[in-house]
Design goal:
Mean pLDDT: 83
Radius of gyration: 24 Å
Number of helices: 12
Strand order of the largest sheet: 1-2-3-4-5-6-7-9-11-12-13
Number of strands: 15
Low-confidence stretches: 320-326
Structural class: alpha/beta
Shape: globular
Largest sheet: 11 strands, mixed
Amino acid sequence: MRSILRYMPTEMMDDVALYLPRGDTVMLMRTCRKLHDIGARVLYRNVALSDLRARLFFRTIAENSMMYASAVKSLHYTAMSNEDVFLTYSMFCDAILNLEELRSLTLTIPLSISSLLHHQLVRRSVIRSNMFHPTTHTDFLPKLECISLNGNILLSELAKFRCTTNVCMTYMMDAKDIKEFVSCIADGGTNTVLSDMVITLHPSTASPLRKTMLMLDSAVPNLQTLVIRTPSANALEASETLAAFPPIFRSLRKFCLNDWSILDAVFMTNEDEAIRLQRTHIDLSADMRGNLEDLAFGPVHWERTMTRAYIKWTVHKAQTQSASSYDVAPESVDLPLFWEVFYIAPPRH
């Protein structure tokens, strides 16, 4: 009796394998060559690992590039300790050279050892220099679209000269870091295709939020989604900046300030007056950006709704608290969940 596996479409078997527990998928790979390939595509599609497991994985990819590397679409590597990190980074770079189908890369690297990884990536030409040209240089990571980094700002150079559409920087950047990041994005040719960005700002950088947003616009004017995270941010300053003329981020569709926070907004200006002022900002912003559809400032969420006659902006907000009652435990202030959004009217110029 012939096996039904010979006649089932590969795509259908891939879908079935997605629902199997990890252990069952490993056992499936040991039955025959066809099921081995199907199991490998499932197990290696989205990979997240660290330390010893990371070294074993990187060695497997480096030594069996044709068999497994093409299956990897998403990779999340976390360096948990400094032990044997030089060997791990070397293996990581060897593996990266073979990941031609990689779409998403997430790196969580302690600052103390980020520069070593950066050196290895430059040495292997994974990070491209300003002399890069596709006709004379090997194109590593040709399909990389999304980069998420928690480490030294130098690692953002991975986006240089690539068609990267999504960049997420979770390392808290100060003014110097912002300048380096903007310079990297602008000089590396990424600014023309980058559409989604998440950045995390140091409080000293978030204070003149307008200046930071103007710098980002000069480097990536075609952004469609912008998320800014910072321990303390003035929502009215952000909305006023978006409402200013000439407009920045003309293609913007979504904007968010402190998207992870679970805290109520803090109104240092009268709440009704603050919301009314922000509504004016939102209306002006929408008039200059036809695609703008969603803005969020912590728990205060503005959503565009269409009617027959006009466009209407609806605000949804969580229960708020006064500034005097606002208190967060000292051990929690470094967590994005406890980063505040406050409303205070910017000084009039």
